[in-house]
Amino acid sequence: MAIAGERSSQASIVANIEDVNDNSPIFTENEYHTRLAEDARFPKSVLTVSATDADTAERGEVRYTLGGEGALLFVVNDTNGEIIVASGAELDREASPTITLEVTAYDTPEGGITQRKTTVIVRLPVLLFF
């Protein structure tokens, strides 16, 4: 409010503040581990990874992709992070006693230059029985 002599004026200002994508997804674990039987087959659930993003709206939506040496043996649900044995996959304990996967969590599902991502390692010792 401004006062000049006996006159005054008043103004209301509305500011719309938009969240920018300034946070990367954060996994609940630094590295994931679980054991897997050599005879595990599709659609055996292996484990579920989880990441959160502090940004709002679509900038905070987290999706998942799978990479690493054993990526073709598994599938990750891109919305909930569940990893399952892929259809037709056969695990071979002698050839790969431990399978290492890389799961990447990324935000802003539509992509773009502001998209942020984080990768975590998943180690899967393959056992004869358990």
TrEMBL record:
PANTHER family: CADHERIN 23, CADHERIN-23
Keywords of the record: Calcium, Membrane, Repeat
Any single Gene Ontology cellular-component annotation: catenin complex
Source organism of this protein record: Chionoecetes opilio
Record InterPro entries: Cadherin (IPR039808), Cadherin-like_dom (IPR002126), Cadherin-like_sf (IPR015919)
Pfam annotation, one family: Cadherin
Subcellular location: Membrane
Protein encoded by which gene: CDHR1
Taxonomy, superkingdom: Eukaryota
Domain Cadherin: from-to ranges: 28-124
Name this polypeptide is given: Cadherin-related family member 1
GO molecular function, one term: cadherin binding
BP GO terms, sorted: cell migration; homophilic cell adhesion via plasma membrane adhesion molecules
Keyword RNA-binding among UniProt keywords: no
Database matches in Gene3D superfamilies: Cadherins
